[in-house]
Write a sequence for this structure.
């Protein structure tokens, strides 16, 4: 049984479908927002937008008890909270790390779409580059 089937067995069908729809939209929007962190004039807006995305993912994954997604979103949201207090642009290393986070989220979105088990976490959550 894949992740989507598990969620639908445990939670209301509409809640699961709404999560999937919103999660897909958030994953689709991440890459451009992340790349905009390297632009001084787009930094503040982009970091705030990314923070909101990961806050929403954290809340939804916590409610739905999707542990790996919750863990990644908590670490990312915490790092973005620090980034919000800074002025841009972001370092290339930080942008690359966030792009890896995006790739991880996208891979899990594919797992959800195909009702597979969640792929292992491949992004390094221990070594977070400087902003």
């Amino acid at each position: 049984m894949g992740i989507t089937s598990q969620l639908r067995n445990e939670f209301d069908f509409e809640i699961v479908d709404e999560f999937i729809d919103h999660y897909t939209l958030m994953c689709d929007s991440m890459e451009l927002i992340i790349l905009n962190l390297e632009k001084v004039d787009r930094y503040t807006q982009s970091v705030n937008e990314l923070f909101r995305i990961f806050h929403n993912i954290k809340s939804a994954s916590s409610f739905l008890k999707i542990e790996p997604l919750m863990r990644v979103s908590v670490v990312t949201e915490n790092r973005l909270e620090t980034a919000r207090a800074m002025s841009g642009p972001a370092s290339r290393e930080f942008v690359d790390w966030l792009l890896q986070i995006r790739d991880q989220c996208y891979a899990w979105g594919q797992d959800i779409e195909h009702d597979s088990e969640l792929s292992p976490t491949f992004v390094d959550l221990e070594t977070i580059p400087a902003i």
Summary: The mean pLDDT is 97.
